[in-house]
Amino acid sequence: MPANNIEQLKEFHWMLDMLQNIDVGLIVLNRENEVQVWNSFMENHSGINTNKAKDINLFKLFPDIPADWFQHKVESVFQLKTRAFSIWEQRPYIFRFKNYRPITGTAEYMYQNISVFPITSTKGEVDNICIIVYDVTDIATGSKALEAANQQLEYLSRTDRLTGLNNRGYWQERQEQEFARFQRYKRPSTLLIFDIDHFKKVNDTYGHQAGDEVIRKCASTLLGNARDIDVCGRYGGEEFVVLLENTNSDGALIFAERLRQSIEALVVPHTQHRIKFTVSLGLCQLDENVKSPQHWLELADQGLYQSKENGRNQTNLIVASK
């Protein structure tokens, strides 16, 4: 055998050995999606050796691959002779491989990035495509952990620690957004503000721990009565606010009375005591006569003041004057 042929044969075997042992999956498919090459990465993670995979349709080996999506992806490679990609953010995995990496053991399956590129013959035709499978589990789980941490930090930054309600800063931000939306869309929204009647007496009689429990119970009752779209917040001390989006004053009065009655029915046990309490509420529907978010809050607060002056444990609505 000529020396140059021997060198070419050595190079071929060297390339084949490299492709078998690289730490990425390598698959070659023909136009019928039949496996032509199946490297050791694919063997190890699928449990299917090369002899059993050869000339078998990929969808038979992996029936849970989304066939329509995958066929569209590879057909573009055959037709356009260009590469195609799939990243884990779009589709966590193509091949359902278990994750055995100890560092990222929280992930049940291997996250994967996929590259698909054409294999061009000497005639310039694409009869086969090559699929490269990258294990990106470490990157994906790290990114997800960072995202979860950021979400938790965002939640903590806008949450009142005692009650779990939105804190004053975040709630005011949402109120300003709703006021701005009203200027454009004119959709009804109503602001509700309420506080606990004679709260100082609760603290003086039963202690601050009992007062904290009364506040927590009041907050949980508020959340139990509110809709998902309602923005509930602790304004300060024993004072609470609710932004009732897409709600006019009639609907807001129904909500306020239901909330007031629910709180009046509460009993908060503390040591040997059973604490009962009530709340007073004020309302204001946003309309053209409300000049600013602060003015809106002041009007609702006037309703609260009126409820206090009239004997407490009631709701009063204030309408902005022209």
Topology:
Elements: H1 3-21, E1 25-30, E2 35-38, H2 40-46, H3 50-53, H4 58-61, H5 67-80, E3 84-86, E4 112-120, E5 126-135, H6 137-157, H7 168-185, E6 189-196, H8 199-206, H9 208-225, E7 231-236, E8 239-245, H10 249-264, E9 268-270, E10 273-275, E11 279-285, H11 293-309, E12 315-317
Parallel strand pairs: 11-12
Antiparallel strand pairs: 1-2, 1-5, 3-4, 4-5, 6-8, 6-11, 7-8, 9-10
Helix pairs in contact: 8-9, 9-10
Provide keyphrases for this structure.
322 residues, alpha+beta, Alpha-Beta Plaits, 2 domains, 5-stranded antiparallel sheet, 11 helices, 12 strands, 21% strand
How would you portray this structure in words?
This protein has 322 residues and is an alpha+beta fold. It folds into two domains: 3-144, PAS domain (Beta-Lactamase), CATH 3.30.450; 159-317, 2-Layer Sandwich (Alpha-Beta Plaits). It contains eleven helices and twelve strands. The protein has a five-stranded antiparallel β-sheet. Strands 7-8-6-11-12 form a five-stranded mixed β-sheet, sandwiched between helices. Helix 8 packs across helix 9 (208-225) and helix 9 crosses helix 10 (249-264).
